[in-house]
Every structure is written in C-alpha cells, then in structure tokens.
Specification:
Layout: E1 15-20, H1 24-36, E2 48-53, H2 59-63, H3 73-85, E3 88-93, H4 102-109, H5 116-126, E4 131-135, H6 138-142, E5 155-157, H7 161-175, H8 181-195, E6 200-203, E7 221-223, H9 224-237, H10 239-242
C-alpha cells in the first residue's frame, strides 16, 4: 500500500488519523485546528494525517435511549481499523460525545486514541481557571463524560435546562450546515451570559468551536477541538506525552 507520507510505500513520519463524520463539519474543523496548531514553517514541516469522514449511527440517539437507535460502536471500530490500515499511529475522535465509546474502540482495535476530554480539562488547570461552565450535548452531560478527569480546583457548572435545550438545537443546526450570523449570535449570547458571572466557558461539543474559536489561548473560552488537536500533536510527536495506550 502506498504510504500517505511519501507516496513511495515507505513511512518516514508518524501519521495521525481523525475519525470524522461525527459530524462532518466538526471533523473538518478538527483537521484545520490540527494544522494551525502545528509548529511549522513549510508544507514539509507538517505531520501526515488522514481524515476519514463517514456517516455513523447517531451517538446522541443511542446514548439518549431513542427507540431503534443502533450502537455506533461497530462502525467506529471499523473506521479506526481503516485508519490503522493506512498507517495511522494515533487516532483522534472529532466529537466529544463520541468519547463515550473511546475505551471500547481502543480495546477492540489496540489503537492509541487521544483522550480529548481529559486534554480539555487539563487545559482548564493550565490556564488558571477556577470556575467553568460546560457547553456540551445533553447525552454528554447525562453521561458525565467530563467529570472523571475534572480538576479538583475548578468549580463545575452546567447550563440551565432551558439553555441546554438551546445548545442542543444549536448543535443540530451546525450538523445541518447552518453556521451563519444567527447561530453565532446565539452562542455568543450564551458565552457572554456566563462570562459576566466570571465563569470560563468550555465549548465541550466539537460542533460549537466552528462558530466561535479564540484567536489564541484564553482563560475565557476553551474549545475542546483545540484540546483534541493539541493532544494529537503531542501524541504523534512523543507517544508518552499525549496518547492513551490501549487498556
């Protein structure tokens, strides 16, 4: 098989794999942030990467117990194996909610899969955050996906029920490709509401950063997409630094 690094069949550098399609815009945005956060001056300084974007069964539906919603796990495992077959040594999931399946994917494939949620919560401590509200999907909130790695020195907050409904509608809007001024205004209003109360906002769903990503590291808004991208870069630069070994 031709190697994606050189086109010659000889691998010369590690390859990052991105499981996209969860949703598609989030996957494309993760690849963009991966490129932008890589320290590089030329094309040749960048890492090789494979973005595999496929339609998957709804993680939100499956985790939410929607009748008839099938498990996406076999499809996620198949996508990860496809990335491995292309030489990918580290795999990133372009979805926070999909991290609910991360350990099972890892166990079934033996892949090293970045724990983007842990990377995001570590970012909070690194930036000196003391109070934070998490904007994520309702299933991610119900499953408490962020809480196992939540820093002890950071107060954890979630939006009100009405605000959560607004976020869920906004996330669905982004999945359908609606990322215009109206959607940006909704997210901006929610961010400002919590910033006025002195809370940092963790954009904990990868559908949200395409609407609002800080220009640089910030203690005001922390996008999970940037945390996933940075952890992926760390893992392929030094496997001991950013990747999780299969357990």
């Amino acid at each position: 098989m031709t190697d994606p690094n050189t086109g010659t069949g000889m691998r010369t550098a590690p390859v990052a794999g991105i499981v996209g399609g969860v949703g598609p815009l989030a996957g494309a945005h993760l690849y963009e942030r991966f490129v932008r956060l890589t320290a590089a001056e030329t094309d040749q300084d960048h890492f090789s990467a494979v973005l595999l974007s496929r339609p998957f069964p709804s993680r939100i539906g499956h985790l939410g117990g929607v009748p008839g919603a099938g498990s996406p796990l076999p499809h996620l495992v198949a996508a990860t194996r496809a990335l491995q077959s292309l030489g990918c040594t580290v795999v990133a999931l372009a979805s926070a909610t999909t991290h609910a399946y991360r350990v099972d994917i890892q166990r079934q494939t033996g892949a090293t899969i970045v724990d983007g949620l842990r990377a995001a919560t570590r970012d909070l401590s690194a930036r000196g955050v003391t109070r934070c509200v998490v904007f994520c999907t309702s299933p991610a909130r119900r499953q408490r996906l962020y809480e196992p790695s939540w820093p002890d020195d950071v107060e954890l907050h979630y939006p009100t029920s009405a605000e959560q409904e607004t976020l869920d509608r906004l996330i669905l809007a982004v999945k359908s490709g609606r990322t215009g001024p109206a959607e940006v205004e909704v997210l901006d209003g929610l961010i400002r509401r919590y910033r006025r109360r002195g809370l940092t906002v963790l954009l904990g769903c990868t559908e949200l950063p395409p609407l609002w990503t800080p220009d640089g590291p910030s203690a005001a808004v922390v996008p999970v997409t940037d945390a996933i991208a940075a952890a992926t870069i760390a893992a392929i630069s030094d496997p001991a630094a950013g990747g999780d070994r299969p357990r």
